[in-house]
Each structure stands twice: as C-alpha cells, then as structure tokens.
Specification:
Strand order of the largest sheet: 6-2-1-10-11-14-15
Helix content: 25-40%
Structural class: alpha/beta
Shape: globular
Largest sheet: 7 strands, parallel
Radius of gyration: 19 Å
Strand content: 15-25%
Mean pLDDT: 96
Order of helices and strands: EHEEEHHEHHEEEHEHEHHEEEHHEEH
C-alpha cells in the first residue's frame, strides 16, 4: 500500500504508469485543493479532477485538463453571450462580501461565469454540477470525492487534502490573485513576491488523510513544491505525519532546470532555490529522492537516478520503478 500526494500534473503523470509497479487498488491519492475555485456557482477541483479523469482513462492528455473529446457547447455559449454585451474576457471575482458567505468551502476563490476564463467542457461541467449538489446536500468534500470516484470506477482511494477551505493566493507588487488566475488566465507571467495559503491556519487535514500517511509509505511525484504540494504541507499535522513515515520525492527539476510550469518562479518567491537542492530544502521530511540521470545535485539523503522526463505511460512506469527502489533504501 502506498500514498501519493498529487497536485498539478506531476504526480498524475506518474500515476499513469504506476500500476506496473505499485498496487493501485491498495493505494491512496491525496489531492491538493488549494487550486479549487467556485465558477458560476459550481465548485471546481482541478487537481482532484485531473486524477479522477486520468485514473478513469478519460483525461485530455494533450492539455492535462478536462475530459478527452468533451464538447464545449455551454462554454462557447457563455463566451458568445459575454461578447454580445461587451463583458471583457478574464477572471471576474465576485464582490468581496460574497467571497465568504454561503458555502464555506468556496471562500476566497469565487468567480462569475460571465466571460468564463477557464475552459470547461460539458461533461466536465456535469461533474462540477454533481459535486456542488452533493456539497449543498450536506456531504463533505471527502464524501463527495469518494462518490465521484465510485461513479468513475476508480482503482485508487482518492481523497481531498482537507474538508476545509484553503486558497492559494499569489501576491505581486501591485495586486493579489488566486493561483488559477495567475496560471490559467495570466499564463504564469506576473512577477511573484510571495504566495499565501489562505485559510490554512484554520484548516486541518482530514482524519482519512492523516491515517493513510501515518501507516503507509508516501510518494511525491514531480509536482510543483509550492502550489501543488505546499497547500498540503501548510495544514496542521500533515508535515508532522510525513515525518513519521517513509517518504520519497521525485524532483521536478534537473539541477536548476524545471521540466514544466512555474515552479522555478514560485520557489524563488518563497525563499527556496529554484532547483533540485531547493526541492530537498522544501521537503525536509523526505527520506530519499528520485533524480534525473543528468542531475548531479549532491543531497544529504539517498538518491535513485533515472530518466525522469514523463511523456507517456512507459516513462511513468520507469520513474515509478525508481520511486519504489528509493523506498527500499529508506
């Protein structure tokens, strides 16, 4: 049995081939919820859904977002209506007082659907309608996620990191924005001064997540240490639980070159060197690391090297095998 910490695309890519190495029916996948947003009244969990669709073999692997071949009739009509009345494109936050009223889980990350800035397919939207409805019936996010996992016949136990709201907020010199605006609408372009995990002091990891971490070895895929894994580490008790178990992390860098995404910029903004060495500093609880063959970083913990670039399932299986080997030397 193994626990995978999943955020962004790094760990989901690893999971695509991990079944050749690990027993996924016995595995738990903990999803980051700091990227979650409420869009037009619908609660969207991007990192949870990437795992949901990947494990169900439904994921659009060109974008690593949404369902493959999903029509966009609703999205296109929202765009047409917005254009017709000159509503400008881009994120439209709900008023400040609306950010914290009503559904507590959605706080600090509420957007209007007018000029919808996220690309949402029709089947994908149905998942968000279903999730929001279950939440409004009084189910927790954990219960709702497990219900969706059952509907997609998943081969892993998929859990959100928390049933409480945590919002990843990116601060620049001039403004603050939700990470989804920074990455989806701004393409990661703004210069970042700091990153805040708003609500993390009051939020707690679920009992299900903490129990899984304390009793099973943990694998962290090549996800962004700041915005994909950082919100989890900010939760009370989760980092402590990681110190109690065996943890292997796959670096998303080859020395100081990141494979993809804004990890370098975000690590520098949060005081870490944007490199494999910085990842090791961000993960002091990790017992071993998987590094690329070309990564000569000298770490103070055991290292297993392989080609860590993941472009298909065969690559993912190779990296998963290295992670399993790294667990053996911890």
């Amino acid at each position: 049995m193994t626990v995978f910490l999943a955020g962004g695309t790094g760990t989901p890519k690893l999971l695509s081939g991990a079944g050749e190495v690990f027993s996924l029916p016995d595995a738990t996948v903990v999803g980051n919820t700091g990227d979650d947003v409420e869009l037009g009244g619908l609660f969207v969990c991007p990192d949870i859904d990437t795992v949901l669709y990947e494990r169900a073999d439904e994921l659009d692997r060109d974008r690593w977002w949404g369902i493959d071949g999903d029509p966009t009739t609703t999205h296109d009509e929202i765009t047409r209506l917005s254009d017709a009345v000159d509503i400008p494109a881009g994120p439209r936050y709900l008023p400040e007082e609306r950010q914290t009223t009503g559904r507590d889980l959605a706080r600090w990350r509420r957007f209007s659907a007018a000029a919808e800035f996220m690309y949402v397919g029709d089947r994908d939207r149905a998942v968000h309608v279903f999730r929001t409805s279950l939440l409004d019936e009084g189910r927790s996010l954990t219960e709702t996620t497990r219900t969706l996992a059952a509907a997609f016949d998943l081969d892993v136990d998929l859990l959100p990191m928390s049933d409480d709201p945590v919002a990843t907020i990116v601060h620049t010199a001039d403004e603050s924005m939700h990470f989804s605006e920074f990455w989806v609408d701004r393409c990661g372009d703004p210069e970042v001064e700091s990153v805040e995990f708003r609500g993390s002091r009051e939020a707690r990891a679920t009992d299900e997540v903490l129990e899984a971490i304390r009793t099973e070895p943990v694998v962290i895929g090549p996800s962004n240490p700041v915005t994909s894994i950082g919100p989890m580490l900010a939760l009370d008790g989760l980092a402590a639980a990681l110190r109690e178990t065996r943890v292997v992390a796959v670096s998303p860098f080859v020395e100081d070159t990141v494979f993809s995404g804004p990890a370098g910029k975000l690590m520098a903004a949060t005081g870490y060197d944007p490199s494999t060495a910085g990842v090791a500093d961000a993960y002091p609880f990790a017992d071993a690391f998987v590094l690329d063959d070309a990564d000569g970083t000298d770490l103070d913990r055991p290292v297993v090297r392989t080609d860590t670039e993941i472009t298909d399932r065969a690559d993912a299986a190779r990296v998963a095998r290295a992670a399993a080997n790294a667990l053996e030397v911890t």
